[in-house]
Amino acid sequence: MLYNLIFSLNAVMPLFLLIALGYTLKKRDFLSGGFISGGNKFVFYIALPMTLFRNLYMSDVSELLDLTFIAFIVSASVLSFLAIWVVSAFFIKDRTIIGAFVQGAFRGNFAFLGMPLLLNIAGEAGMARATLIITFVLPLYNICSILVLAAYSDSGKKVGPLTIAFAVVKNPFIIGISVAVATVLLGIQLPSMISRSVTYISGMAIPLALICLGAGIVFQGFDKKFKFVLVASIIKVVALPVIFVAVGYAFGFRGVDLVALLVLGGTPSAIIGYTMVVQMGGDVYIAGTIVVTSTLLSAVSLTLLISFMRMLGLFV
After folding, report:
1. How many CB atoms lie within 10 A of CB 208?
2. Which of 6, 68, 191, 273 is the most buried (most CB within 10 A)?
3. In angstroms, rounded to a whole number, what is the distance separating the alpha carbons of residues 170 and 181?
C-alpha cells in the first residue's frame, strides 16, 4: 500500500508543485499578467500542438487508431455531458447557474494537466492514449460547452452549425495533429534543424503550461452558490473518474487504457472553460471557483485513485 501511494505521489505531485510555483510567483508579482496571458497563448497555440505533432510524427499512426478505445472515450464524454446537463436542469432552479455548472462538472483540463500526468504514469504508451483523447474528445468539449452555455446565456448570442464547426476546425490541437498525419502519410522527412527545434519547443510545453495554470488561478471567495461549486468539483474529480474506470473495466479495458480513462475523467475543470463563460454571459463566479476548487481537490483524488488502482492490480 505504501509503495503504491509513493508511486502515485511521484506521478501527481511534481505537476501540482509546478502549479503551486506558478501561483506563488504570481502572488509575489514575479509573473506579470502579460507573461501569463502570453505564456498561455504560446502553450495553447504553439507548444502543445508541436508536442502532439512530434508525438504523431515519431509514431506509427496506424497503431494509434484503436477504434474501440476511441468509440468508448467519445461515448463516455458525450453521455456524461448529457447526464450532468439533464440532472442539473432538474435540480438547479436558478437557470443562470446551469451552464457554468454543467461545463465545470464535465470539461477537464486534459491538455494542460492530463497529458503530462499520463506521461508521468505510463510514458510513451500514455502519450499515445493522450493523443487520441486530445484528437477525439477535446473538440467535443468545445461543442458541448458552446451548446450548454448558449442555452442558458443572457447575452442573446445565437449559435449555429457553422459557429460550432469553425470552433472545432480552428482548434490548434486539431491543426497540429492534422499536419502531423499529413506529414507522415506523404512520407515527408523533416530536416534535422526543424525536428530539433520542434523537440526543444515541445520540451517547454508541459512545465510552462503548469506554471501558467497555477498563475492563472484566482479564488473568488465563498458565497451562497459555493455549494454548487463543491458538487460540480466532486462530480468532476471523484465521480467521473470512478465511473469511467468501472465501466471501462466492465468493457474489457486494462492497463494503460484504464489509466487514461481515470485521467480523462479525473482532471480538474479547465480554465479555458472559465474564459468561455465570460465570453458567453454565464455565471463567472461558478465557473472560476470550480476551476480552483476542482484543481485543489484533484491533487488528493488523483493521488488516492491511482494508488487504489495499483493496489487492485489494475495497472503496474
Report:
1. 19
2. 273
3. 17
Cell numbers describing residue 49: 500542438
Measure the CA–CA gap between 276 and 284, rounded to whole angstroms: 10
Q: Distance between CA 159 and CA 39 in Å, rounded?
A: 29
Helix pair 271-280, 138-151: axis angle to 10 deg: 30
Check whether 154 has a pLDDT greater than 70: no
259, three cell numbers = 489509466
Q: Is 269 exposed, middle or buried (0-12, 13-18, 19+ CB in 10 A)?
A: buried
Q: Which of 298, 309, 302 has the alpha carbon at shortest distance from 248?
A: 309
- Cβ 141 vs Cβ 270: under 8 Å: yes
CB 121 within 8 A of CB 251: no
pLDDT of residue 313: 85
The rounded radius of gyration (Å) of the Cα atoms in the chain is: 19
Cell numbers given for 78: 458525450
pLDDT of residue 1: 65
What's at 135, amino acid-wise? Answer: T
Cβ 146 vs Cβ 247: under 8 Å: no
Question: What is the per-residue pLDDT across 162-171, written as a single tens digit (0 to 9) for each?
Answer: 766 776 677 7
Task: Indicate the average pLDDT of the chain.
Answer: 87
Residue with the larger pLDDT of the pair 64 and 225: 225
Cβ partners under 8 Å of residue 214, min gap 6 = 18, 19, 20, 21, 22, 23, 24, 25, 26
Tell me the mean pLDDT in the region 266-284.
Answer: 82
According to DSSP H, which parts of 60-171 are helical? 61-64, 67-91, 95-106, 115-136, 138-151, 161-169
Neighbours of 94 (CB within 10 A): 12
Average pLDDT over residues 30-44: 88
